[in-house]
Every structure is written in C-alpha cells, then in structure tokens.
Amino acid sequence: MRLGCLACLLLFLAGPAFAQKQVDVYNWSDYIAEDQLKTFEQETGIKVNYTTYDSNEILDAKLRTGHSGYDVVVPTASPFFVRQLAAKLYLPLDRSKLRNWGNLDPKIMEQLAKYDPGNAHAIPWMWGTVGIGYNVAAIKKRMPNAPVDSLALIFDPTIVSHFVDCGVMMLDSATDILPAALKYLGLDPDSRDTADLKKAADVVKAVRPYIRKFHSSEYINALAGGDICLAFGYSGDILQARNRAAKAAEKREIAYALPKEGALLWIDVAAIPKDAPHPDEAYRFLDFMLDPKVAATSSAITGYANGNAAATSLLAKSISEDPAIYPSAEVRAKLYTITAATAAEVRARTRLWTAIKTGR
Q: I want to staple 271 with a disulfide (CB 3.0 to 4.6 A). Which of 122, 287, 299, 332 is the partner?
C-alpha cells in the first residue's frame, strides 16, 4: 500500500513536467491558414487553443475585464490597440525572442509606429480597407447605373432601397461605419464633434430600414451564397466571399470596390496581453506569424495584405497585383485612418450605434 501511494505521489509530482505546453490565441474569424496552426503544433509541440471574435469591441471588453486567459490577441491598431496600450494592457516585446522580426515591412512599421512608438508592443499582421462588396449581376439587374464605387450606394436611401429584396448587410461597428458616413457627408471621418457624429448617425438611421442585418462576419457566406447582394465590410472578407462564390456549384460574380470618396485604412496587430498565462509560448507563436510562408499562405486564404515584406515574393501575382488587396499609391492617398477616442467619446458613439440598430 505504501509503495502504491508513493508511486501515485511520484506520478502526481512529475505530472506538470510532462504536461503539454499550450498557447491561447484570440483572433478574428477566417484570419489565418488553419493548416499552418497544425504545422506550428507539430514543429513546436505547443498546442494551440484558437478561438475567434468578430468585432474589436468584444476583444476590448475582455481585455479590460482582466485575466482574459489569452496569450496572443489581434486588435486593430487604431483606435483600439492605441487605447489599450494607453491602459497598459500589453507586454513590451523582447525582440531577442523574435528571430523573424527582420521580415516586417518598413513602410507598415513606420505607419504602425504612429500608434506604437518604437514598435515596442506589437507586430503588424494584416491590413486592408473597408468598402463595398456586391453581387455584380444582382445589382445590375435592379439598377443598371448603380454607383458601385460610391458611398451613395450604401448611404443614399433612394439607391440602397433598390436592393432590399436581394439583401443588404453592414458591419456591426460604430468605429467603421460612422466615419464612413461622415466621409459621405463631406466631413472629417475622424471628427469628434458631437453635431457631426449626430449627422452621421442620422445618415445610417435613414438607411436602417433597408439593412437586413448588422454583423461583422456573417456577410462573407451570405454574399458568397447569394443570400445577400450588397455588403459594406472588410476588404479581405469580401474577397473571401468572391473566391468562395467563384468555386460554388452555382457561380456568382462578387466584386469589391473602394469608395471614390475615400475609405478607411486599418492595420491589425498581434500583441501579448500583460497577464498572458503562457508568455514564452506566445513569443513562439508571434515568431511563427512572422514567418514569410505563414504570412503569405494566410494572405492567400484571407484576401488581406500582410505586413511581412519577405512574404511578398511568395504571393501569387493574382494577390500581390490585385488593387483590391494592394491599392495603388493614388488610391492609398484617399484612404484615411481613425485615431483613438476618449472613454467618454466611445460611450457617446456606442449610444448612437445602439440607437441606430434598435431604431430608437
């Protein structure tokens, strides 16, 4: 009996030494090549617990609550990551643990440094725009002269009402939609003025009756499957819908257009929360994300441009030369970014957004 108890005790004490290492990753849906995750596990012996979200607001709430349990998260640089950084929610990066750091695109790093001085806390993952996704045939059938390259297609009630029967969806994000509405009005998309934001909210309220659903990821399959014909969403999501629709039994032509008035440019970054339970494994995962092959494969699947300069040569020309993914210098000159809002401003925008969605 004593020997049996001793054996059990030894096994108990030895258990942690044999426990499999793990890394808990919280990322956007459809945002990395899943087969690459298996490769990471095989190469490192580290198990990836991978969960997803579809809005920055969800991630922000979990990080601010504390003890999220995540080792790697992927917020949008501005305004979310900037605000979280100010709240000291992230660990500063030890670059000695990131051997692939040199693969990063200097131009993207320069832009990111505006939000993260010295690029001290995050690495760029993917970047893209917010624009118009549409079913070419369905839109043309209902409105042959539809302004598919204009915000009027989304925000002019007399235009968007043409597409109620075939379905319209919009991002569930005040941070993305209100600036676009401001741009449509010819106002500063980064305006903090209460009167300006009220005008933007009124624009969205006016088209609310024609919006089937506000959601930040469901429109991918809905557009690809023909359940909707128009979406205002993230560039890569719409390009994923385009690719899925082209491969479907009943093929549909899905197109993506950047509004001629201008579009939001965003950069998503990967960072380590300050209370990450497995920081060493987090570094291994970040370095894995910095591998050019991983970045290139993920771009091919997601339809987003990546922040890895070394990955460019690995991309098919259909991706690296696609203006919807890598816009020309002329188009990029019309893109805008959003700076971080104060807590009071965030609450005010949230109230406006809730009123829009509820119709109150």
A: 122
